[in-house]
Amino acid sequence: MSIETLSAPVGTALDRFIARRQEEFPHASGELSQLLRDIALASKIINREINRAGLVGIGGNAGQENVQGEDQQKLDVVADIRFIRALRYGGETCAILSEEVEEPILTDSPDGKYIVAIDPLDGSSNIDVNVSIGTIFSIFRRVTPIGQPLTEEDFLQKGDDQVASGYVLYGSSTMMVYTTGHGVNGFTLAPSLGEYFLSHPDIQMPKQSKYYSINDSFHDELSPNMVNFIKKCRADKMSARYIGSLVGDFHRNMLKGGVYMYPATSKNPNGKLRLMYECSALAFLAEQAGGVATDGEKRIMEVEPKSVHQRVPFFVGSKDIMKDFKL
Ligand code: AHG
Ligand code: MN
Ligand code: MN
Questions:
Q1: Class of the 211-322 domain?
Q2: Which residue from 97, 133, 178, 320 has the highest number of Cβ atoms inside 10 Å of its Cβ?
Q3: Which residue, 226, 210, 220, is CA-closest to 317?
Q4: How many whole angstroms separate alpha carbon 218 and alpha carbon 220?
Q5: H or E segment at 177?
Q6: Which residue lies with its CA nearest to atom 11 of ligand 1?
Q7: Domain 3-200 annotated CATH 3.10.50.30
Q8: CA–CA distance, 187 with 118 (Å, rounded to integer)
Q9: Rounded Cα distance, 187 and 201, in Å
Q10: How far apart are CA 157 and CA 150, in angstroms?
């Protein structure tokens, strides 16, 4: 699509872009737009915290574990608090599912239309070494009618039920990338203005895959099919790239073409990545950008969650390379 044919040209501020998109849907009430703005605002605050983390002593370990039994970094906690605060008082969100909190969080807006699943800070192990980290979010519509208490049905929704998903990448520049099911658009933060501007309209994964991404330490426990798949990636002269921050690895592969793999391992027999606030969100973006995301058996978007913090094996990439993928 040429830039001229888009309803908003490159350089459009995120707020204006969201408003224009809303005008294209005459029955939209504006609540989703406000929710996306709330997330964008919270991400700017996190961005500020990340940039000064080394100076104000919020780098490093928080000295406790999260619900996954993983070490919590101080910034994990800071990001979690910031996002929960932004969503809790926003009015649009009735519940939040966070990686850092065991149970769903009921907000101060019981009549809110939306449920947000969030990985407030992704790539924690990279915080202290100044490598890209991110935030991942999924937005679902509540199922239970307003006025009635929320149930499991509201919390355990599959990827195909998402209304929107996206991520923020705190990298060499900070970007917010999201979809509402009408393509994927990327916005870059201009730090001096404190505003996101459309920089990557209508992102499509390139046909040709440049990169394959997997933690190489799993190699000896991969299935023969996966070993062959990696052989093929190498034979096709694809380069190996693995940051260990899912958002960063996904973003690079979506822009440049490639495949990301996090299989089941002896340490994590169901895979490590979380369905509800990592994999579904990225699967929605991948499909909207013309890619494929699977757990090895079915589309990630079709996997019915059984618990909020459920893990799944995750394989996501360009359509062409995913044709050859088998578990
Ligand atoms: P989180 O920091 O939210 O717990 O996520 C870390 C994840 C993901 O970002 C990354 O792709 C993966 O862990 C890396 O895991 P390995 O170190 O096992 O490769
Ligand atoms: Mn994560
Ligand atoms: Mn996290």
A1: alpha beta
A2: 133
A3: 210
A4: 6
A5: strand 174-179
A6: 246
A7: no
A8: 19
A9: 8
A10: 13
DSSP state of 189: E
Name residue, tokens 């505003």: 195
Cα 5 to ligand 2 centre (Å): 36
What integer is the mean pLDDT of 228-248?
98
Percent pLDDT > 70 in the chain is: 98
Residue 123 has pLDDT above 90, yes or no: yes
Nearest-angstrom CA–CA distance, 289 and 215: 24
Contact 196, 185 (CB under 8 A): no
| Residue 249 alpha carbon, nearest atom of ligand 1 | 11
Give the closest residue to 133 by CA, choosing from 81, 78, 57, 214: 78
Q: Where are the domains of the chain?
A: 3-200, 211-322
CA of 1 to the centre of ligand 2 (A): 32
What DSSP line would sit under 15-72, residue for residue?
HHHHHHHHHTSTT--SHHHHHHHHHHHHHHHHHHHHHTHHHHT--SEEEEE-TTSPEE
Rounded to an integer, what distance in angstroms lies between the CA atom of residue 51 and that of residue 70? 24
Q: What is the pLDDT of residues 166-181, one digit of tens each?
A: 999 999 999 999 999 9
Ligand 1 atom with least separation from CA of 70: 4
CA distance 46 to 53: 10
Are 30 and 38 within 8 A, CB to CB?
A: no
Q: What is the mean pLDDT of residues 250-273?
A: 98
Question: Which residues sit with Cβ closer than 5 angstroms to ligand 3, an ion?
Answer: 99, 119, 121-122
